[in-house]
Amino acid sequence: MLYLDTVIKLALGLGALLAVTRLLGKKELGQFTPFDFVYALILGSLLEESLYDHKISIWQMLFGVAVWAVLIYIVEILVGKNDKLRRLFKGSSTRLMKDGKLDLEKLNKNHIEMEQLRTMLRQKGIFSLKEVRDLYLETSGTISVKKYSSAEPPTAGMLRMEVKDESPSILLVDNGRVQEDMLKFIGKTADWLQEQLKKEGCSDTSNILYAEWSETEGFFILTTN
């Protein structure tokens, strides 16, 4: 009975974590603010305590998780409607550089060393501080950069070139399996796909490792051979 209780708590705990993650919205891990991290940390602590303390029943665990989830939801709603609360709970972006001049006071206040800043810039593909015009530290701890125009790569518009826009590619065959939902998404049928693959010399889908299709670029196919 003890083992069954643990299994049930683990299963329900996983469901609770997924539900709270949905409450937080579709964020990447790097977009989480420190406050979002506290959400998950406390929820994890609640689940951990219930797993190791068998005096806590399944219903008590669910009640604690439900109360915490409701509190999270209320805070998220309030934060989304009130700018002052959003700044209080989640903070705001900090401009570390303006017009090529570093704000050392803000840099020190956020405990960022120069080499750490250089590392963050390299992750953005920037290898010299002289390329940076404006630099912001976001609430998630990442940086946003506006480079000088002279450091930006030339675009087709700058060169007055006419470039045809490419349609997004759609994955139609994945490791030999036809993606029926993607075919419906683009308004095509399995018969159409089979006919097009024959034209490309790939009549047997089981030999296709990867096949994508774009309205402007056509097919790109990788086979297992």
From TrEMBL:
Query: Mind listing the UniProt keywords for this protein, alphabetically?
Result: Cell membrane, Membrane, Transmembrane, Transmembrane helix
Record has Membrane as a keyword:
yes
Q: How does the record classify its membrane topology?
A: Multi-pass membrane protein
Subcellular location field = Cell membrane
Is Chaperone among the key words of this record? no
**Entries under PANTHER family matching the protein:** UPF0702 TRANSMEMBRANE PROTEIN YCAP (PTHR34582), UPF0702 TRANSMEMBRANE PROTEIN YETF (PTHR34582:SF5)
What this protein is called in its record is DUF421 domain-containing protein
